Amino acid sequence: MSQEILHCPQPFLLECGKTLPQLQITYHTYGTLNAERNNVIWVCHALTANADVFDWWKGLFGTNFLFNPEEHFIICANILGSCYGTTGPLSENPESGEAYFQSFPDISIRDMVAAHEILRQHLGISKINILIGGSLGGQQALEWAILQPGIVQHLLIVATNAFHSPWGIAFNEAQRMAIRADHTYHLNVPDGGRKGLKAARAIALLSYRTYDTYSKTQRETDLNRTDNFNASSYQNYQGEKLVNRFDAYSYISLSKTMDSHNVGRHRGSVESALQQVKAKTLVIGISSDILFPTSEQRYLAQHIPGAIYQEIDSFYGHDGFLIETEKLTQLIETFLAVPVAK
């Protein structure tokens, strides 16, 4: 594994019309590019993940798994607006000498893809054999396959959509309301909004899992308990976990990015945009996903030319895309066994 940083001193124009004076991209690579340069796997990560895909997608990526460094050259770049090394709200604005905080401009999925494009060209990658992502990562992969249809051979998108739904936007807005209700967020300090971020994560978990998940994993065995329930402890624990590794400013920025996702923007329609995908495409839905319901993945498969739709039956809701790696492996292996039509 290699972690590297690409420094881009040139101004980076954003879709919103604003400009970042400069850009930094932190990325990981695993394995070696082969002589034919046809073993590239590019991973687009989700909301609070990072560039170390071997850490957060174990079972699908890693030694002895389907996507391994012995066979593949694997690339994962930290997304624009995050807090794991790529330019984001806690980065220093060279024009002011201070961190951006709330002044960080609005970032779109297309901006994230434009940053991926800069890195791809820097690495001299002309073809991506497999482009894969789930959730927000799937939104990036889909947008990239539309913007650059000639470079992607296989597109694997999991638990994602063509445009973010009112339901998803409402969940994100509720989380942002929680963060903004924390007065420390408005102080523009690195640890601002921590209590709000904790609450936001607790809200998000309700969309990542399901009623049945909580009923089984947080079930009470003490019939006489009237307080300090398992589900309450779990929400607090998960909130603290995120607070210890993320920041409120990046969280708000990235959730707004997700809200703005719409492949049909300035392209006439969503359907015509999806028609531009040329890659051999596998769309995977998760039966119990309430945040990105399977109707959204079926819609993708219906309008992407030649796309194949498969569904995973999972107990874990939306988080199944990270947990059900054995089922994902089986579906992907079957899909990849059929050669790309020439």
Write the topology of this structure.
Layout: E1 2-8, E2 12-13, E3 19-20, E4 23-30, E5 40-44, H1 53-56, E6 73-77, E7 92-93, E8 98-99, H2 109-123, E9 128-134, H3 136-147, E10 152-158, H4 166-180, H5 194-208, H6 211-217, H7 230-243, H8 248-259, H9 270-274, E11 280-286, H10 294-303, E12 308-312, H11 320-323, H12 325-336
Parallel strand pairs: 5-6, 5-9, 9-10, 10-11, 11-12
Antiparallel strand pairs: 1-4, 2-3, 4-6, 7-8
Helix pairs in contact: 2-3, 4-5, 4-8, 5-7
Describe the protein in words.
By secondary structure, the chain is α/β, with parallel strands linked by helices. The protein has two domains: 2-167 and 262-336, Alpha/Beta hydrolase fold, catalytic domain (Rossmann fold, 3-Layer(aba) Sandwich), CATH 3.40.50.1820; 168-258, Rna Polymerase Sigma Factor, Chain: A. It is 37% helix and 17% strand. The strands form three sheets. The protein has an eight-stranded mixed sheet with strand order 1-4-6-5-9-10-11-12, sandwiched between helices. The chain has a two-stranded antiparallel ribbon with strand order 2-3. The protein has a two-stranded antiparallel sheet with strand order 7-8. Helix 1 (53-56) links the parallel strand 5 and strand 6. The mean pLDDT is 97.
